[in-house]
Specification:
The chain is an alpha/beta fold. The protein has 9 helices and 6 strands. The longest helix has 14 residues. The structure holds adenosine-5'-triphosphate. The site of adenosine-5'-triphosphate has 17 residues, from helix 1, strand 4 and helix 8.
């Protein structure tokens, strides 16, 4: 039986923080693979303008090239509309029995506001990325209690910072894989 981790996000762009974390979660949780799923429209970032989904997906493909325990899926992009986690998990449940859905630390404390949180918890284990710098939990509800917190090898990189650095003409070496860096410059993203 295949145990998979689903890692959703905007990935605008994907960076080494995402990749190192995903590799670490796979080992800690003993998963066969991690599937990166870029959102079409994130429910949490409905008003934020993002780079085209095709560019975001292409950058993920370049970043994970040759890594046999990483995959990406265009499911949310092909579906279009707002990318709700419950829809994605229902879809992947058709193929995989054991699903672990990876979310950032802050997200678990807003999880009660997500669409169908009880059903999400029924279908998948929720893995929360805890960093050394994470503040203590602001509250504990049934979702926080059920979630599995994993302390990953954290590196403080954010996509926002990368976009701002490109805009200012600052180098982005070491923050993103080389091929992603070239892609960003070739297509003049974030300029
Ligand atoms: P932005 O700065 O545009 O908000 P981001 O870098 O936080 O983007 P997202 O694509 O929104 O990236 O994040 C996808 C997932 O990756 C989220 O669950 C987020 O918490 C997590 N994440 C983002 N950056 C890191 C990092 N440096 N280490 C570990 N997890 C991260």
């Amino acid at each position: 039986m295949s145990k998979v981790g689903l890692f959703g996000g905007t990935f605008d762009p994907i960076h080494h923080g995402h990749l190192i974390t995903a590799q670490s979660v796979r080992e800690i949780r003993n998963l066969d693979k991690i599937i990166f799923i870029p959102s079409y429209i994130s429910p949490h970032k409905k008003d934020v303008k993002t780079t085209s989904p095709e560019h975001r997906l292409n950058m993920i493909k370049l970043a994970i090239e040759g890594v046999d325990f990483f995959e990406c899926s265009d499911y949310e992009i092909s579906k279009g509309g707002v990318s709700y986690t419950i829809d994605t998990i229902r879809e992947f449940k058709k193929k995989y029995d054991h699903i672990e859905f990876i979310i950032g630390y802050d997200n678990i404390f807003k999880f009660h506001k997500w669409k169908d949180p009880d059903e999400i918890m029924k279908l998948a284990k929720i893995i929360v990325l805890k960093r050394k710098s994470s503040v203590p939990p602001p509250h504990e509800d049934k979702y926080v209690k059920q979630a599995i917190f994993v302390q990953t090898r954290g590196i403080e990189i954010s996509a926002t910072d990368i976009r701002e650095r490109v805009k200012k003409g600052l180098p982005i070496h070491f923050l993103v894989p080389e091929k992603v860096k070239e892609y960003i410059y070739n297509f003049n993203l974030y300029g």
